[in-house]
Amino acid sequence: MIEIVETDAGTARITWHRATEPRAVLALSHGAGGGIEARDLRAIAGVLPGHGVSVALVEQPWRVAGKKVAPAPKTLDTGWRGIWPALAGMELPVISGGRSAGARVACRTARELGARAVLALSFPLHPPGRPEKSRADELLGTGVPTLVVQGGNDPFGGPAEFPEGDFRIIEVPYGDHGFAIPKRAGIGQERALEVITDGVVEWTASLV
Prior knowledge:
Rossmann fold; alpha/beta
């Protein structure tokens, strides 16, 4: 089911993958360079409803409008705030999440919006090759239970680069920023996606 939501940043779109008897909602948005067709988002949306968690894949207004470049972080946050009433209106705990830029949005707004927790997929800890430009403060400031799922070879920050903090981290071996696995790796692409979905299923079950 697709739901159109008007926000102060423009028209957003939610694609719902509903659980039969949901006990929570997981809202996931895309990154700055792609949409909700990302492999990790599709995998989670395919698995979580079978475990009692409805998944809302959120397309930010810039993406719905067909633009190729994401706007400033402040505008992304505005779009996320605008879709929140459609999620919270179901009167279920809402887990805020996303991949890359979407993960940053979820981290920045979690406390303000009353999110139950944050799922950060491929959190861009720093620009590639620029570890001094750390965004760790966004991750450390969520104020709610937080799970990071990070590729072992992510140029935006590998698991070993993350600071200690009040969050959990799951490493996807050999994965890049899009969780793509090279053919020479010891695990295949499907197994890598299972690492993601198994970890998210276990984590969400511990929350609600």
